[in-house]
Amino acid sequence: MGIVLVRVWSKRLARVRKRQRPCGYNARSLDSRELLVIRRELGQLSRLALPMMLAQLSQMGMGVMDTIMAGRVGAVDLAGVALGGNLFWPAILFVVGVLLSLMPSISQLHGAGRQREAGEVVRQAWWIALVGGSGLILLFRNAERIYRAIDVDPLAIPIALAYLDALSWGVLPMLGYVALRYLCDGNSWTVPAMVVALSGLVLKLPLNLLFIHGGFGVPAMGGVGCGYASAIVMSAQFATMTLIVAFSRMRVCGVFARFSAPDGAEIWRLIRLGLPIGLAIFVEVGMFSFITLLIGRLGVDAVAAHQIAMSVAGLTFMVGLALGAAASVRIGYSVGAEDLRAARRSGGVAIGVSVSFALLAALAIYFGRFWLARLYTTETAVFAMAAELLLFVAAFQLFDDAQATCTGALRGYKDTRSPMWVGAVAYWIVGFPVGVLFGFGLFGLPELGLHGFWTGMTVGLAVAASALTMRFRWLAGKPRRIRALARH
Q1: Which of 79, 237, 383, 486 qualifies as a FRET site for 411, CA 20 to 30 Å off?
Q2: How far apart are the C-alpha atoms of 155 and 160, rounded to whole Å?
Q3: Can you give the C-alpha Rg of the chain in angstroms?
Q4: What's the Cα-to-Cα distance from 126 to each of 129, 243, 320, 450, rounded to whole Å?
Q5: What is the pLDDT of residue 31?
């Protein structure tokens, strides 16, 4: 990690030393001050990112739990859960992405000392959640045509549809919870999300056992039971976060002080800021999910192996995502306080830590791929394919974590459109076509199957990481552009 940080800051230190030496400053003293500032920033990021990381890992852990427990029932149940999840998550994360406009908005209000205005912002965001969530419920309960059109393995379709129907009961509670979580996160208080997420993970295990295998009057549902367990956990998380916000220091924001009718101007401001975030998340997650649906044509074993590899990739991705969210809060606060130098430093340190972790994660996955694959399945064919796909997971760690952290840093500046356009090009114009061409062997290219699809995903992530890193470096040095974005 130290090597990466030195690389990020070496040019800056050199420029500072060059300017200061003629004035009689001691270079060693200057280096010490810079390193002290970086260490302080690491401490601030850690206090924000570690609870976020645990919260994200807990949320992801629920998906991992579903994958492992459904996989133990059989490949068909695992494939059904995977196909259901790969329609559910891109769709709901689109709405969650729109609600992400709360975080930079609230963090900048916090930095400007205007916390009391945050309650109204959350109330208007709930209207977005209500309308968007209702549309999602209709989609999930009428998804059969989508699966039939893509021609996925018909054995998995009934399980996928029942799983989606079960999950749909948790959509509105989940979106309500997300809005309250972003209120706390935007005020630099990330512990509540961690506590609620960890509690949800603890609750998920017995509920999964109950609904998957049956007992106490509940029939055995197999993989479908994971959906009902998740819906109950989502409802419990919303209720818990409501109590936290109502009876904690977040009371100053006045979320529950009164009822607010829809305010078209405020809703449009949030949508204008959040829609590019939602689209950016959708184009990224959508590529991975649509590729999963196409892999469904290769059979349930291929889907199961793919889901195992995606599950491992998702766990490590949560670290880069949490660092990006922490950078967003820190940058938003600094921009609100008119300290643009601190904002740039926060982003640089977060990216450096993210890349350092990615390198360690890549090594761990490479050497532990057989153990990881065996953890998820006992079926020989699925195990062999999953172990091979984990090599791709190790290969794209650096790109995946870097692009996630850079995206979060840009959101702190309220720069939400550039990640959207970068994602659209990287994932759908570059990554997806490469995956399809080599996956199915079109136009005379070799038919690589699973390996072809994963090649396309890796290429897409590499393009996104490169472009977003360059965008951050450019924007961080443009004060006028930063102030113009802050006014939106």
Answers
A1: 237
A2: 10
A3: 23
A4: 5, 16, 27, 40
A5: 65
